Amino acid sequence: MSGLAIEGVSHDHGARRALDAVSLRVAPGQFCALLGPNGAGKSTLFSLLTGLAALQAGRIEIAGHDIARRPRAALTRLGVVFQQAALDPELPVMANLRYAAALHGIGGREAGRRIDAALARVSMAERARERVRDLNGGHRRRAEIARALLHRPSVLLLDEPTVGLDAASRAAITAHVHDLAGQGGLTVLWATHLADEVAPGDQVAVMHRGHILACAVARDIAPEGDLAARFLAMTAEPA
Ligand SMILES: Nc1ncnc2c1ncn2[C@@H]1O[C@H](COP(=O)(O)OP(=O)(O)OP(=O)(O)O)[C@@H](O)[C@H]1O
Hints:
It is a single chain. The chain is an alpha/beta fold. It has helices at residues 42-49, 71-76, 93-103, 108-121, 137-149, 167-182, 218-221, 227-235, and strands at residues 4-13, 16-26, 31-35, 57-62, 65-66, 78-81, 155-159, 187-192, 203-208, 211-217. It folds into two domains: 1-77 and 153-239, P-loop containing nucleotide triphosphate hydrolases (Rossmann fold); 87-152, no CATH class. Helices cover 34% and strands 26% of the residues. Bound molecules: adenosine-5'-triphosphate (ATP). The site of adenosine-5'-triphosphate has 12 residues, from strand 2 and helix 1. InterPro entries: AAA+_ATPase (IPR003593), ABC_transporter-like_ATP-bd (IPR003439), ABC_transporter_ATP-binding (IPR050763), ABC_transprt_ATP-bd_su_PQQ (IPR022467), P-loop_NTPase (IPR027417). Keywords: ATP-binding, Nodulation, Nucleotide-binding, Transport.
């Protein structure tokens, strides 16, 4: 399948099991929230999806390419927005994106076209000439998302992309990325510990202590509509 497939992935950090037989499928064009408290294993899963850590057990396919057997093919289909900023704050958005495009071997007019398109997708076209340092937190994150779209990935990973943002910026980024999936056809895996970033029609994988506890449409996990309360109940630690 051309979305994202994770099958039976287990991972140990020394004696500590961080992931235990994790399986998850995200269909093409679907937005999936990976919802887990601190220590659930989200970062470990992301490091496997991005090829930063080697798979110990199980299988990962990105847009139909097995990450262990065809890492290059798999990783070129993947866009990643890391928690840490990937843009140079002293440079304008445009210069940052030209550099990022060059890293993908994209230059000249094609780079200009891709940058314009990527910025337009996150409503940032008018900020191309501003220095990253001068942008507010929400616009910085949107510029990071534009960077991740330059090579036209089919799967986009975002690792807690709203950390440190105010409520309005959080809502704007969440809406933009939902649009990238719904209208743009991107497959999105969005790691968060905030249930209010999930729309009722989103797929949600609830993760806790290295396990996927539930994977379904949000309104099926919390039929009364209170996903935050349901999430807390599912992941509550004994007092
Ligand atoms: N390098 C490491 N060495 C040892 N244990 C680790 C290492 N990285 C993660 N762990 C442990 O693995 C488990 C999963 O951690 P991970 O960082 O993947 O979770 P997370 O859901 O991303 O949490 P957070 O939101 O706090 O980053 C935790 O128990 C953590 O302490």
